[in-house]
Amino acid sequence: MRPIEGLTVLLDMDTKEVVEVSDTGRSIPIPKATNTDYRFSEQKLQQDLNSINPISIEQPKGPSFVIEDEHLVKWANWEFHLKPDTRAGVVVSRAKVRDLESGVLRDVMYKGFTSELFVPYMDPTDAWYFKTYMDAGEYGFGLQAMPLDPLNDCPRNAYYMDGVFAAGDGVPYVRSNMVCVFERYTGDIGWRHAESPITGMEIKEVRPKVTLVVRMAASVANYDYIVDWEFQTDGLIRIKVGLSGILMVKGTAYENMNQVEGQENLFGTLLSENVIGVIHDHYITFYLDMDIDGSDNSFVNVNIKRQETSPGESPRKSYLKAVRNVAKTEKDAQIQLKLYDPSEFHVINPTKKTRVGNPVGYKVVPGGTAASLLDHEDPPQKRGAFTNNQIWVTPYNRSEQWAGGLFVYQSHGEDTLDVWSERDRPIENKDIVVWYTLGFHHIPCQEDFPIMPTVSSSFDLKPVNFFESNPILRAPPYFEKDLPVCRPAYSA
Amino acid sequence: MRPIEGLTVLLDMDTKEVVEVSDTGRSIPIPKATNTDYRFSEQKLQQDLNSINPISIEQPKGPSFVIEDEHLVKWANWEFHLKPDTRAGVVVSRAKVRDLESGVLRDVMYKGFTSELFVPYMDPTDAWYFKTYMDAGEYGFGLQAMPLDPLNDCPRNAYYMDGVFAAGDGVPYVRSNMVCVFERYTGDIGWRHAESPITGMEIKEVRPKVTLVVRMAASVANYDYIVDWEFQTDGLIRIKVGLSGILMVKGTAYENMNQVEGQENLFGTLLSENVIGVIHDHYITFYLDMDIDGSDNSFVNVNIKRQETSPGESPRKSYLKAVRNVAKTEKDAQIQLKLYDPSEFHVINPTKKTRVGNPVGYKVVPGGTAASLLDHEDPPQKRGAFTNNQIWVTPYNRSEQWAGGLFVYQSHGEDTLDVWSERDRPIENKDIVVWYTLGFHHIPCQEDFPIMPTVSSSFDLKPVNFFESNPILRAPPYFEKDLPVCRPAYSA
């Protein structure tokens, strides 16, 4: 929060020589340190926030999951392999869900992970134009994941998993508590129905929702990314990214907005005296090698279209109709989301049908949508061209894992998802990979100073005619007699 | 789940005479009852779903909120009035948040509630074209809210509030346990930061997130709507709607999709033998009379625009810029969301500025977006014209509370938010009401049969330069010594 503005040093990494020093910010004071320390040990107490009675998720019989061979997680109707990874952070693979009617374990996803991030800052001036980070490929999303803080990063009932990596010199090392796994009950409802009293039947059935969360938090220099993979017993997988940490700030001579001339562009928001939070975007692109009941799948754009009725056909003039379009090649599956031309996005197994004849599938349910608006010919956008669409589908190719290319530092955009997809290969009834990008536009505000409250977005992978019927219909409700018996700590 | 398809009876409600009986579905069998009973008492056990160890939210020292005069809720830095209502369900009013620096209680929202719902089904045929429900105005969203099921609708630490209403004949009655209020800890993170090891400082600070939830669940005949108002200590209010319950289904002669000719339109999905789940939309429109530090506010569209650089200005060709447009009149604030022309939507107090000179405000953060695609001249869309935009802003007018009009049964669309807003009244620096519509397109799938797992969407009201800095910076982390001491029930 105390930038030395305008001072940049250009270093040749091969010769280790300083090529250029630029110091254009001499008239800009270094902001004061006042109110920037976020450590608890340095705070005055605030009575209102301290007045919340202790509350936690409690599961005194212990977790319901087991982890075999240190990596294979088995919980309720789910099984999946979990691997900490230096570049991707966390890799979830061979995710399978048990069909509770047949007892069979069915494939859902072969492999899923954070493939790349793209974080362009919106200031084209000298000391800022190059700040367009690709955090997985440049820094290692997993390398930047520090040990989680028990009780605060994850609830009390969490299990922790270490990452075991090779350092740059080949020496193995352990990143302890890098990933946590925990069951979660939030008070939310799995399903419910109460019969209306007019039916004369006193029926009210409600099921609580319990899920399994896998979490990692990467601190990529100033910013913190919290990545959750959440598994629900109804077959849904929610992938959520939370942003917290410290904004990247710019020094300014201004102490108050009343000193700024009307037309001047600050490239962000004045957050405190002499501190500007620069506008930026965050894109997090996920690799999702879906395997719906086997590896050969198709991508179906189920378009929701207005249909006008014929004169005299109906008192209605219009209604919505679902039109299924199977993507033949990659370009059919380059998706930019449109509110007024909506679709569902299904990954189906065309060779496998339900009892009544629907193809089994999962859908990608978009959320957290923001699109990159940069010029496609802008150098950072060429490197980050994997954000040109929100959804892409490619045929599986072992060399195509990192959406921004394997070597992103050297990239001019010649090895990105955009380039691969332009080859327009066939994707129907093939082993396909779906790519989804979560996006955030971030115009900073004073509440983000000196450290920002978490902002989250998520998207879902959701069964769609995958099961014959509601897979959690038979789940039990909560009964008082089963719940933990707790007392306050002070009475211990 | 067992429709008698095609049988409709037209009744004159004044004369109580049957005007017309139409029975066009004689060839359509009534679906069998197999697998439609959702009561727990009728289920076979499923080992996998029963294998989850008891888990709950525990707060043995009791809630941290108090409710004064039966309606005034005081929790952490929040105060608001809570009222069960026959039409709106729940009304939250006079919501104020304490500024923890000054100790002052500051206005945020004068009144917020579910103003109207619009649920058009997408089948223009005889027995279905009229199914275009407006659940608040037609049935009473609050009247349809049944008593909540403790432990399952709300966690164990919930407080319940009764609704006291007048029946049609004027006799008062009590709807017990209609609303619940509870504190929630989900394992999520309020804010965090870990310093990178290269700084040499071992700093890791993480704060758990605890929120306060107000919940109601309305069972409008077949469907169940769960409405949550969630208050965060960082000043954010999240308004979430969950959908569960029973689909409205249509009988069909088909038992399998292989019997359907390619071009035939089923108006939905074959869910089970002889049962079609008809495509439909859900729109839930909220009335939000914001009062940011007082009643006179302005609505600002903070447009995020691409700016191209001049030749030679920068190695960058483009960046994004925030352009503030204050809405002068209602038409300036008729907002259809656009992914490729994004904005933030601020409600500010133009007469009050932060220490560094930003106007204090809250922003509406859209989520759960789906737009009505029906023809604007379609009769149901005329009545549901309040869904023609996702956001509207009107000047406060005591007669404009119900987005579809006061008397929706008789409506031809002459008294809707759309009509009011077309008057294009001034809204700058006035007491303004923001209207936000959550939308869902619902193409049913087999997992929704016979009862659907909850699908939720939400939007946020979030402080933006309302506080001088992060208002939860000084919140304490969790310490093991403060947490409850719990044991499994069986050992009691």
Automatic annotation (TrEMBL), chains A, B:
The record's EC number reads: 1.4.3.-
Q: Name the coenzymes or cofactors required.
A: Cu cation
Record PTM text: Topaquinone (TPQ) is generated by copper-dependent autoxidation of a specific tyrosyl residue.
Domain called Copper amine oxidase catalytic: residue spans: 56-472
Q: Which Pfam families match?
A: Cu_amine_oxid
* GO terms, biological process: amine metabolic process; response to abscisic acid; response to auxin; response to jasmonic acid; response to putrescine; response to salicylic acid; response to water deprivation; response to wounding
Native organism taxonomy:
Eukaryota, Viridiplantae, Streptophyta, Embryophyta, Tracheophyta
Q: Could you name the active-site residues?
A: 135, 223
Instruction: List the protein's name.
Output: Amine oxidase
Q: Which family does it belong to?
A: Belongs to the copper/topaquinone oxidase family.
Q: Which residues carry this modification: 2',4',5'-topaquinone?
A: 223
**Cofactor annotation remark:** Contains 1 topaquinone per subunit.
What keywords is this UniProt entry annotated with? Copper, Disulfide bond, Metal-binding, Oxidoreductase, TPQ
UniProt cross-references to InterPro entries, sorted A to Z: Cu_Am_Ox_Cu-bd, Cu_Am_ox_TPQ-bd, Cu_amine_oxidase, Cu_amine_oxidase_C, Cu_amine_oxidase_C_sf, Cu_amine_oxidase_N-reg
The domain of life is: Eukaryota
Molecular-function annotations in GO: copper ion binding; primary methylamine oxidase activity; quinone binding
Q: Which organism is it from?
A: Gossypium lobatum
